[in-house]
Design goal:
66% helix, elongated, 387 residues, mainly alpha
Length: 387
Amino acid sequence: MAALSAWFWNERFWLPHNVTWADLADPAPGVEHPKAGHLLSALPLALGIFAVRIVFERYIAGPCASILQIHTELSRRAQPNTVLEKVFTSITKSPDSRHLEGLSKQLDWDVRKVQRWFRHRRNQDKPSTRTKFCESMWRFTFYLCIFMYGIRFLWQSPWMWDTRHCWYNYPYQVLSSGLYYYYISELSFYWSLMFSQFTDIKRKDFLIMFIHHLATISLISFSYVNNMLRVGSLVMCVHDTSDFLLEAAKLANYAKYQRLCDFLFVVFSMIFFGTRLIIFPFWILNTTLFESWDIIGPYPSWWLFNSLLLVLQVLHIIWSYLIARIAFKAIMRGKVSKDDRSDIESSSEEETETTPKERLKTASCRGENGTNGHFGSKPWSQNHNNW
């Protein structure tokens, strides 16, 4: 274990040339540098955040949902059937025609009756709009609070206005209490998301988001141990800028304030593009790649840190493309169809049975009002969680 620890904390990897861990010992009483042990405090705090979230959703978000008349929908439950339940849980939730025909013969049921059972069973697991509203309200509250704290803290910090201060006197920069709280709060929140992902709404991108949270925790921890907190705080603030707007748009969508939802989504998209495609590459990457090269020079962990940021920028480009495509489709669908929309945050799609009379009525409505006159239908919500 000692050999493994010595290999992992190799000074030649983590620190600039001619700097050792001993050089970063606390310079004076009450003054200290970031230490790896500080990160352990994020774990109990993450559990505390998770507990606060439960209380918040029950006593604050829940009553807000009731005021907005967002109630738990009563879905039709599938009748108990051990054979179909086994297929649903262990084989497939959406059987193909071959499976349907086999189950139809095995149970002596009509194929449409088997299809209907699986449809009811999928909808049975679908979370209610009220549940999704409460979850989004919690995220909105945290993202907004941490963004406001970050802006307030960075506004008084010299590296906000001159990014070269991120590298002056590096790595001997002293850890301030404000920077410590900012970092640990962000880290704790993402740890709480890791915990709660197993109890939250099960989304189709569960694995992708799990990897995303893990990568975020790794990057925050890496920059903390490496004392790159100043530039790390800028990275976190840039990413926090648009997150609360997306959650606000979701809240408006769940409350059926569609014009407000569309407006918030447009604002979110504009800020996302501005922060991820302009500010991040031309402000953050400029200082991590070029200003730091001139002031401190490269070393092994410097290369790793910048490689991770470049990968993050590639993801920004991909996400921006997806958002632009969603917005474009929303505009196009808004001109063609008013009611073809659903929210597929969960792993199962919302499916409802319609009678021929209802389908005829829907078709006639589309014929009478093919356009709704504004960016007011909500097709963007079909895909808002895919990125």
